[in-house]
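Attaching the record inline, Q. Sequence:
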Amino acid sequence: MYLKDYLIGTETTHSANNSVTDSAAAGTALSSGYKTNNGYIGIDPQGVPRATLLEAAQLAGKRTGIIATYPWAHATPAAFTAHNISRNNVAILSEQIFNQGLDVVLGVGFGAKDYYGSVAEAESKGYTVTNDKYDLADVQPGTKIWGNHYPSTIPFDIYLDADQPTLAEMTAAAIRALDGSDEGFFLMVEGSKVDSGGHNNNIVEAVSEYIAFDEAFKVALDFAIENGNTVVIVAPDHDTGGLILPNPDSVGGNRNSKDYADAVADVQEGINSDKISWTSTGHTRRRCGVWMYAPEGIKPPKGLSDKPGDTLVNREMIIDNTEIAPYLANLMGLDLEAATRELFVDVTDLGTFNPDNKTFTFNDMDIRIAANQSVAIVKGCKVDLEGKIAVYSNDRFYVPKSLLPHEINIKMSDIRMI
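Structure, as predicted:
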């Protein structure tokens, strides 16, 4: 495994309201540094939207992208890009993501049930829509790409058709598309279906997806080493299935493969081995590994090892998952709290929300905007907020600071009309 040499410690993953997290809460912790309740996406336990690393990067002028092997508004990619009280509200989450102006979105295409947007609409927003691995291979630097590779679900890596891209191939295309900006880029890559293998207690599925992710890590690692100014950090949102190896350590692993050689032999033959066991078909409270590559001189998060490697010492080093986002924000020169203040101003008491058309109208001002949109109507004109999204959460309405009435009056000339 390429990851093996880069282990720097472990992370705890509990959510705000449960010792066993789900992907929504854990993804939110990793993206924003805030614990939240299971099922919540991009908001704190009180329902207040919190800016993510990706959103702060966008504000700073960086290019941004997400890749997943689940649909693109599934819990983890949504936790980096959207804000809602429920991970199940995929129509809302996908509408926010579609209007956010990301530079790269790859994974399941526009056939996922209840998802917002279409190929034609993506093209109208300036995206090159990629349909297979050959389209991805032709992607040029600076291109905005949206993947439409699979109708509604991505097969496990071992069952991909010849023209369907692997996670590594998607990662390579994304990096190529994002590279070249003076401001840099932020990319979130999820090997989503390791989780599916755990839920299914199927070791062949879990291992094959983990290897597919490891290959994607190698693509990012190779770029980072050549680039010289890039950090790659790997942090699972949670464990699924509670795989048990013989003579396990505190995180269920065993570095001595001789203890489970028979199970390895089964998996190599494509057999769902009965020589290992599982504790659950759901998520567990088990700690997860943290792996990192960084250029020389860059220290890891406080509490983790500055000597990477799969060692007993590193396996016993522990931080919480909320410590990763502020660490990365600091490395990138970003301020997550300032980004929250910029993107999510509570204007509920300054106007009226119409639940029928999801539109908020300011009192005595000709300014209105619909939830999940990044285009406002100001004095009869459409105003492009350049990916800054209006959010309705827990009966409160939030808009970017640039849409406040006094900001509009001052900066009307600075806002791009469409």
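The two ends are 49 Å apart (CA to CA). The longest helix spans residues 203-227.

More tomorrow.
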